Amino acid sequence: MDTRDARGGVLVLGGGFAGAYVARLLGGRGATIVSPENFMLFTPLLPEAASGTLEPRHCVVPLRVMCPHADLLLGRVTGVDLAARTAHVQTDEGMQDVAWRELVIALGAVPRVAPVPGLTEHGLSFKSLADAINLRNHVLREL
């Protein structure tokens, strides 16, 4: 298992609005962001991407551009050891332990499905960029 230190001693779990802005506001102090994607999705623009009035690439901002003083670790957090101040991250290269002095947990939310009969079987999710593209394609197929 590979071990590394978080840049500037700050480990940010999540590359969404909260995580990306924390890393950005730290500026030159730096941070390490752990995220499965290398971009921040601007979710208010998803309806425009789904309708075709905006290209999907305009709904995202690369984390490396938005947070130039942060390191980006592409992967998923599988556990956090508070006593040892380390986080276990699963990456494409394998497991890595990241040591930190300060931890920011900004993992986002999980969408919930309202208890409407038939919604889970027939409804389409609308939380990610892939969901917006899928919805647009679905509407075009139906037309």
Could you list some keywords that capture this structure?
single chain; 143 residues; alpha/beta; four-stranded parallel beta sheet; 27% helix; elongated
Explain what this protein looks like in three dimensions:
It is a single chain. The protein is of the alpha/beta class. The protein is built from 5 helices and 10 strands, in the order E-E-H-E-E-H-E-H-E-E-E-E-E-H-H. It has helices spanning 17-26, 46-51, 63-66, 119-122, 129-142, and strands at residues 2-5, 10-13, 31-35, 39-41, 60-62, 70-74, 76-81, 86-91, 94-99, 102-105. The chain has a 4-stranded mixed sheet with strand order 1-9-8-7, with no helix packed on it. Strand 2 (10-13), helix 1 and strand 3 (31-35) form a beta-alpha-beta unit. The longest helix is centred in the last third of the chain and has 14 residues, at 129-142. The protein is elongated and about 55 Å long. It starts with a strand and ends with a helix. 25% of the residues are buried. The model has no long low-confidence stretch (mean pLDDT 91).
